[in-house]
From TrEMBL:
Gene3D superfamilies: 6.10.280.40, P-loop containing nucleotide triphosphate hydrolases (3.40.50.300). The keyword Cell inner membrane does not apply. This is AAA+ ATPase domain-containing protein. CDD domains: RecA-like_BCS1 (cd19510). Residues 469-522 are annotated as: Disordered. Signal peptide: none annotated. GO terms for biological process: response to stress.
Length: 522
């Protein structure tokens, strides 16, 4: 028995070796055109005896940066279908609200399903792209796809209704399981030392809502209506021939709730957030790639846009001292260093950013909000924030009484109190950010009750009022002193001019010396 098995194995081995030999000759010595011709005919022969059809669904379609929605829907469908419970190797890739574990098939795993009597097989496959297969970061170069195999007699059933059913069902499950995500872009070096930027994400779990957001109720309602109109505006946008996206500019002093509002928007619309760190983007091309890789139903945020980058489009000039370097090695070193430095710095330009917002590429996909935040709206280039790019400008300002009432409700669970009237007067006279108001309202220990917290706020408001008064007085005194100084200089100048006109000394220097030395003009 052992001898028979040994012989069998040796025969199998020699068949495989012969096949490899023929395949190598085929690849190396047969011309490309002839190879294509032979492959076509060999497929025809195989088709005569192999009755199965295969369809592949790639993770990235078209150009390689865009994630396929169909692939995502299939993944979700396969994660939920009963057949997947029979798979032995599964991958846990998402946890919704820390409650349910979502599992999908691991690489090279296969499951079998039945649809109206047709048996079909789903295989999850993976390959590494050839050009980057030596990378130290193999995960970043891996491409995935699903392969669907079925008998050719079911071709109409599968292509006509099964695939449609899978995609629709997958999308519906995704909506039910939707866990909002917070993406950020990280840059890493590829094999050639170039910076590459990619999105990575965590679950988005910010609890802010429009209900907890402290601001003028009218302004809040206006924003909510605007968001509703946008969300339901697919047909309207296509009717007016505009990409389905909208720009929001949030501006105001630090601590007035700009970031909190973005979180409230995401929770209200159930959109993912892409927090774009512009300084980590290598150049305009990289920026474009990131844009294409964002999904629909998302908010792309650039915080503190005024200090994100020097958006002048200027490249770094060569350093002068490098001109004198004769030594070849030193020159090479300098070039390498400059390359490394250049590679670290972002070369995103204003025009690149403008294209990102409303260039042709920005119309890939839809239902996207672009939000900029800034503390200094006047510093921004007008082209960046003109209507049409940043459609809605929202000012978030110091805490008003209505906003305070929201915070009092959030932090102390109260709608009214006898101290409210005093707080109202103080808020009208003093500028305090919602962040500072909130900080004072928050009980710091168990013995701090509502009254104590409100008194604490009153104290802080009175102090702020006093400080503002002092500051205003100082400012006034400074202005007064400057004014006086100016007037003094002016009168000195006019005195000098009088002397010049009336005096009999011809030389100007002598005249001045005369004034200085004797106090009288000679
Ligand atoms: N309008 C607001 N409503 C509710 N909470 C607020 C509001 N503004 C500020 N806060 C509170 O203050 C904290 C800081 O606010 P936030 O980060 O949103 O301010 P910001 O305007 O984005 O500040 P910065 O300009 O410094 O980024 C938040 O965690 C939140 O608790």
């Amino acid at each position: 028995m052992v001898a028979v098995m040994g012989e069998l194995w040796s025969q199998v081995g020699s068949i495989i070796a012969s096949f490899m030999f023929v395949y190598t000759i085929f690849k190396d010595y047969i011309p490309y055109e002839l190879r294509g011709y032979l492959e076509r005919y060999s497929h025809k022969v195989v088709n005569l005896v192999y009755p199965y059809v295969q369809i592949t669904f790639h993770e990235y379609t078209g150009e390689r940066f865009k994630r396929s929605e169909v692939y995502g829907a299939i993944r979700t469908y396969l994660s939920a279908c009963p057949a997947s419970s029979r798979a032995k190797r599964l991958k846990a890739h998402d946890i919704k609200d820390n409650k349910s574990l979502i599992l999908s098939m691991d690489d090279n795993e296969e499951i079998t399903e039945e649809f109206h009597g047709a048996k079909l097989w789903w295989t999850s496959c993976k390959y590494v792209t050839k050009s980057q297969s030596f990378s130290f970061y193999p995960a970043s170069d891996e491409k995935r796809y699903y392969r669907l195999t079925f008998h050719r007699r079911y071709k109409d059933l599968i292509t006509g209704s099964y695939i449609n059913h899978v995609v629709q069902e997958g999308k519906a499950i995704a909506v039910r399981n939707r866990q909002l995500k917070l993406y950020t872009n990280n840059s890493s070096d590829d094999w050639h030392g170039y910076k590459r930027t990619k999105w990575s994400h965590v679950a988005f779990e910010h609890p802010a809502t429009f209900q907890t957001l402290a601001m003028d109720p009218k302004q809040k309602e206006e924003i909510i209506n605007d968001l509703d109109k946008f969300r339901l505006g697919k047909d309207y946008y296509s009717k007016i021939g505009k990409a389905w996206k909208r720009g929001y500019l949030l501006y105001g002093p630090p601590g007035t709730g700009k970031s909190t509002m973005i979180a409230a928007m995401a929770n209200y619309l159930e959109y993912d957030i892409y927090d774009l760190e512009l300084t980590a983007v290598k150049d305009n091309t990289d920026l474009k790639k990131l844009l294409i890789d964002t999904s629909n139903k998302s908010i792309i945020v650039i915080e503190d846009i005024d200090c994100s980058l020097d958006l002048t489009g200027q490249r770094n000039k060569k350093k002068d001292d490098e001109k004198d370097e004769d030594d070849e090695e030193k020159k090479k070193d300098a070039v390498r260093k400059r390359f490394e430095e250049d590679n670290k710095k972002s070369k995103v330009t204003l025009s690149g950013l403008l294209n990102f917002i409303d260039g042709i590429w920005s119309a890939c996909g839809g239902e996207r909000l672009i939000v900029f935040t800034t503390n200094y709206v006047d510093k921004l280039d007008p082209a960046l924030i003109r209507r049409g790019r940043m459609d809605k400008h929202i000012e978030l300002s110091y805490c008003c009484f209505e906003a305070f009432k929201v915070l009092a409700n959030n932090y102390l669970d109260i709608d009214s109190h006898h101290l409210f009237e005093k707080i109202k007067c103080l808020l009208e006279e003093t500028d305090m950010t919602p962040a500072d108001v909130a900080e004072n309202l928050m009980p710091k220990s168990v013995i701090e009750d509502v009254e104590t917290c409100l008194k604490k706020l009153i104290e802080a408001l009175e102090m702020a009022k006093e400080e503002a008064k002092k500051k205003a007085e100082e400012e006034e005194a400074k202005l007064k002193a400057e004014k006086e100084e100016k007037e003094e200089k002016k009168s000195e100048k006019s005195e000098k001019q009088d002397v010049k006109c009336n005096g009999n000394v011809s030389d100007e220097v002598k005249e001045e010396n005369g004034v200085k030395e004797n106090g009288v003009i000679t």
